[in-house]
User: What shape does this take?
Amino acid sequence: MAVAAPGTANAADPCQLGWSNVGPRSCAMTQFNSAPTWTLGNGVCVGMLTAGGTAYDGPLPSTHYSAPGSTHSIELRLLQGFSPLGDWAPSLLACDVTAIIDWHNLDTGQRGSVTRFIPAWRTGSHPDFVYVHPGPGRVALTVRTDRPSIPATTEVFVP
Assistant: This one.
């Protein structure tokens, strides 16, 4: 019988979102989901933009992430509409929109905004990922669009 112990990792090693602590260390993480943002998309399309994600301490490794080395940040998953019959059925309430993510670090006072075009095909099986870098602390995130919309705000703790 053999016993294997987890590898050792120190705070300077890159972290892996959602991985075990073997080799690179696991991140301190906070998972969250926000209410949907209701919007008018291209033309007369009524759309629903949903945001959720992971706040982490970092740093992220250079592989598999579009924000390598980022610390005290948020990986935000944006997707359009919903499918009442699962990921392989057509999505309803999906429109081409430009998402605007406003953030405010309630502990440091820092503010910022990130803008990203989210096409209608970015549904539950093909979400788009946006990285926000607010620093550690309590962060208020507001997701809205560049069209008439009902914004959704949520608060998340960034380790």
